[in-house]
Amino acid sequence: MSHEVDKILYSASVIKRHEKNPILTAEDVPFDATLIFNAGVTKYQGKYVMVFRNDYNYTKQGPFGFEGTNLGLAFSDDGINWEVQKKPCFSLEDEEIIRAYDPRLTVIDGKCYMCFAVDTKHGLRGGIAVTEDFEKFDVLHMTAPDNRNMALFPEKINGKYMRFERPFPVYSRGGKDRFDMWISESPDLKYWGNSKLLLAVENVPFANDKIGPAAPPIKTEKGWLTSFHAVDIDSSRGKNGWEDTWKKRYTSGIMLLDLEDPSKIIGMSKKPLIAPEVQYEKDGFRNDVIFPGGMILEDSGEVKIYYGAADTVECLATADVNDLIKLCTEAK
Ligand code: BMA
User: Fold this and answer.
1) Which atom of ligand 1 is the closest one to the Cα of 248?
2) CATH code, 238
3) Residue range of the domain that includes 58
4) Count of structural domains within the chain
5) Is 203 helix (H, G, I), strand (E, B) or coil?
6) pLDDT at 289
7) What residues does ligand 1 touch, defined as CB less than 6 Å away?
8) Alpha carbons 284 and 289: distance in angstroms, whole number
9) What is the pLDDT of residues 34-59, one digit of tens each?
């Protein structure tokens, strides 16, 4: 049975929303754009790089209600002000594929890897591509359906690449959304296995529906600092956004994983890290959605957390790395 989730959830007090939020919107994009959100962000070759999701032209038709989805590219010197490139940067030419979305970026050994979700005619998949210039991407791997939401670790651990992922077991989980966060390893980023359950939805007090990965983890002295997304559903919610009905709320959680064996959780905050509280999070295409896709640890100890808000705009929040670790280790 799923538990009750509080009607009102708050962000952790250590979280500071950036005064320039939202830091990227459709108005900043020089091609057809409507919803700009769920971006992957990293630092690469001295610049901040963002690959963002763009759902464009709301038609209310078809399975998604938009004419299409593409991935745009932006660069920045400060991680706050962005220069959006003229054209989308990534597409997959394949009859089977409907769209790619929700990118997450991880730099490993000087190359930038992008995980992304893929809707296909025969299920939801996740892909991993690699690039050195954000013009040419080579796809290294695609999951079997239904499994998406992947995020890579920035280095090998005990000789293996590691990733988070979120399979969608249905029969075995009571025929409902009861989806959990998993971790897998690979010798070469192409073949993945030794999958383990990392965090189950029933162990997250602010989720009663499903959870999954958010941004790729960042390395700290105390462990891998790891965000995740958590969803609660409330049947009394009705029209919450542009669609006729939207009963879910997305928050972000935070946990700390063992440096040597990241399938071990050292601690997890029992409360959300970021919950939808301000106008641009509470009011958009889908109200009350927070979805981090990028976390950057600065030399100063500041952690930049990039997140999609209300499936409509891209935002930035910051927190001190030690405060985030404390949320996990002193969890109440
Ligand atoms: C999930 C994904 C995310 C999105 C979320 C809320 O299923 O599609 O991209 O942010 O729903 O709509």
Assistant:
1) 6
2) 2.115.10.20
3) 16-329
4) 1
5) helix
6) 98
7) 38, 102, 250, 286, 289, 291, 308, 311
8) 9
9) 999 999 999 999 999 999 999 999 99
